[in-house]
């Protein structure tokens, strides 16, 4: 059978049925995905608003003890110190990358709602750029990117009525992956 002799109405009918089935899946779960993105977006934006805009609390504190964080080399035989985890008298904790704080008396600045450490300094040295725990460094930029992804996804879901199944899966997978990364880094640090 040559392409000229094919019945084009049957081909179009098959594609329409396939498109209709995929659109049923998208329409069935569209509201659920939008609601989940809104809830996660509110949580992420509240964390970022707390970090960027709300006033911070400054407390004078004292380091009571610390723990050295190690990583094994490729062979597994030796360990290398990569960070110091400090604990204070008032219950705060923070981690610095390869920087040991020799002074016991420090000042900690943390956010109002979620108590994320934003600055740590002593009378002699500012250790704020060395902090690797909490909402600093990579995690802060990851949260910014995650919120941007959520906003773009909600705009696409809200404005496009006929979104394809592949685009819908891409929105779900991208935001799920970014959520997984944020949770893993929060757990590790």
Write a brief caption for the model.
The protein contains three helices and five strands.
What features would you describe in this structure?
The structure is a single chain. A 5-stranded antiparallel sheet has the order 3-2-1-4-5, with no helix packed on it. It has 3 helices and 5 strands, in the order αβββββαα. It has helices at residues 8-52, 138-159, 165-188; strands at 56-72, 79-88, 93-97, 105-111, 117-121. β1 and β2 (79-88) form a beta hairpin. The model is unreliable at 5-19 (pLDDT under 50).
From the helix content, strand content and strand pairing, which structural class follows?
alpha+beta
> SSE string, helix = H, strand = E?
HEEEEEHH
Taking pLDDT < 50 over at least 5 consecutive residues as the criterion, the unreliable ranges are 5-19
Roughly how much helix do the residues carry, as a percent range?
A: 40-55%
User: What best-fitting shape do the alpha-carbon axes yield?
Assistant: elongated
> Rg to the nearest angstrom?
25 Å
How many beta strands in the DSSP annotation? 5
What can be said about the biggest beta sheet? 5 strands, antiparallel
- Biggest sheet strand line-up: 3-2-1-4-5
Give the percentage of residues in beta strands: 15-25%
End-to-end Cα distance, whole Å, is 65 Å
What's the tally of helices? 3
Give the averaged pLDDT, no decimals.
85
